[in-house]
Amino acid sequence: MGENIQYVLPPASFSSDGQKIRTPERIFDGRVATCLDLAMLFAACFEQAGLRPVILLKEKHAWVGVWLIDTNFSGAIVDDLQAIRKRVESGEFIVLETTGITNTSRSSLRRACSTAKTYLEEEGTFQYAVDIHRARELRILPLPSRSTSQHAAAEVSDKNTPSIEEMPDLPPLNPELISEVELDGRDTPTTMSKSPIETAQGFKKEGDFSKVGPRARNFWG
């Protein structure tokens, strides 16, 4: 990752008494993080990117997952291991071992995915998962940041910049979850993002109103 973060073990009381979680700023300032710190860091990044993260916990370890479709579990806390396994196998949900970004245990994305999946195959160690998006729907919101300093992005030298690797193979997504959209030959991400009036303006220049709705057509006479 180029940040020289060292992985540290959580305190012995992690499972029973809880654990203080380092903020992203403290992680990058101190260059140390536990598995829970890293899982929360990844979850924060996923959520900021508009994705739907899930924190997973088993005995003495935490890792992260993320939805690949716009859905969530029925509850914010999920202890049904089989339900999580099914979501992973269907291709709707992916899990990641986050400690692979540290100097202690650096690994590829493919290995991070396979390692995280093995945790779901263990019997008797899984505890629960926390679906962040579902928690937000239930009005469980993040605490406001109390940091007043502006943490500048660390400069990464070219020699430490990791090469881009190929994406790991994912299970095929359930066809029932894929919606079909018929696109006109002129449809592009740019034209599809425009308002009906803006689209009508473009079609008017071409003299073609066949794709324009009646309200927009009447607007242009």
UniProtKB/TrEMBL annotation:
Residues 188-198 have a biased composition (Polar residues). It comes from the Bacteria. Residues 149-221 are annotated as: Disordered. This is Transglutaminase-like domain-containing protein. It comes from Leptospirillum sp. Group II '5-way CG'.
